[in-house]
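Notebook, p. 212. Picked up where the previous page left off. The plan for this session was modest: take the two constructs that came back from the sequencing core last week, fold each one, and keep the raw output in the notebook itself so nobody has to go hunting through shared drives later. Recording the first one now, exactly as returned: residue sequence, then the structure token string.
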Amino acid sequence: MNNSASGLKIGTDGVLLGAWADVGGGNHVWDVGCGTGLIALMLAQRYDCHFSAIEIERDAADEAEGNIARSPWKERIKLIHGNISEVAASLPAPDSIVSNPPYYASGKSIEAGNQKRDTARRDSSLCFASLIALASLHLRPEGNLFLISPFDRKADIEWEATLRGLHIRKCTPVITKESAKPSRILWHISRVSGPTVTDRLLVRDAAGNYTDEFKTLTKDYYLNF
């Protein structure tokens, strides 16, 4: 799978979200800010849904389109180059939205090295508030939003979900190595109210080896487990 042109390369965040999100039972899924197309491809491997993969950056969109075209699921994934706020009304209403959005606040110093990577990492192009607002406007009545965020954006996301009348159904802090503090959170946010499940995911143990829980979650995507 190619990722040379995309500003944000394939990494653990995208793999975690693609393996963790449960979009079963729906007909149509939006992958917003799809980058290389990784998450849409991972979900298409597990679920018999149709996907709109939306990417604003031209080179990344071209690369994602190539990755999709070479996959066994190309008939169920459509690549859309554009700003989600401009193209949303033309897309089928989603049962689920998934996104690994930019996570640095606008104006924060990032030593990215190039404009494409900067666009991919800054929330000026797609902030958490706009993503949650998008979900509140376009999700079907029982629809769900799945995303990953830095741990320090937890209060912001909880506030935005409440503001938009959405409900946090699952919250999974991610700890990259044993004894470290959580660095990310996986979120399941829904139109449907209900109890919030809170658990955690440890990626590596104290010796630096992948944990059994991480291997179980991602076993369909890694050949060396």
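Okay, moving on. Second construct, recorded in the same format:
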Amino acid sequence: MRLHRSLDGGPFPAVDLKDFGKELAFSVDEYRSRMRCAHAAMDAAGLDALLVMNPANVFYLSGFQTFAVDGAACLVAPRHGEPAIAMDPPEFGSAWISAWIKDLRGYPPGSDRPAYAASMLAEHGLDRGRIGVDDANWGQTPAFRAGLEQSLPEAEFVSAGELFIELRRLKSPAEIEHIRWAALATRAATEAAVETAAVGVTDGEIAGAAYAAMAHAGGEYPCLAPIVTSGRRSGILHSTHKRRTIERGDTVLLEIGACHQRYNAPQMRTLTVGPPADDVRRAADACIAALNAVLDALRPGAVARDVAEIGWRALTAAGDDLVFHGNFGYGIGAGFPPNWADATGFIQRDHSTVLQPGMVFHHPIAVRRLGQFGVAFSETSVITKDGCEVLTHGERVLVEC
């Protein structure tokens, strides 16, 4: 094998994959089915190809995954012809074992990457094509887009972000099975966190126990490390452990989402070290009631804003001077750090999403009295033909340690 050939921008050297084996997250048939759906979406949008750089979208169509998500891997999926992926040459090993696509290429050292991506399009005769780009995030920067347009001045580049949202909105049975496996690791991690919480331990020790249990249960590196906030810090949104020692009377907020084949199953729980204060108990009861009400309202044909209104009515019992983000559910699926959300749906007062079987949501019902305490309960669910199925595990109760 002459590995130096991978540095010249051409295809990687031919290797007998039978000697090494593949680690595909899905069958080739499933990937081919996704590509056919992408072709149909291209037809509907009048596109000749997709140029994909969001790591979750690259993974969705090709299987390619790496934790080096800033490496600007680029998938070219023409309407006619086979797809190809360009990447940093050191990523060949990851692509080799995880992607079903055969055409794998390394960016030449010091190369102009937009120009190289443009050359891949030109190989398919798309110098004047209409190209959809998933410019929502990551390597698809304005400078990259400008480089594409400069290299192919007669081509038309248009946003294809909404196309990917539609492609990924409904999860297949195989995707849901990965989420089920992730939920088992989430349960193990949550149980370990609760068992560890006690006066005198640190918030980091609780997070460490959760992370160890998650890994022992088969979880991969998650999109977000286990979130543990305690005492007054539990009242600060998007904060996590920071070397704080647990004291009697503390409220401890947990948010844990294990990952299996890049699919996540997040869950939030709250515990108190010693008896809870009355306002903490009242907030917890209201959060649990709102979560139960939302889950009961989930069914095909339901409108997101109507479900959110049901949640709001139950949450008003939490008390005064509390902060809530207004989100009773957001779509999740395949993800890479730092986010497991996939923007495929929202259950909020200002969203008119109509629920369909196969949509998967995380329902983060969390209220905080800023700088005093925070209480949160959540589940991951999938819409079924009859209602919804909760994929995560465990009682919805305020645990006293």
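Notes on construct two before I forget. The chain has a mean pLDDT of 92.
Flagging for discussion at group meeting.
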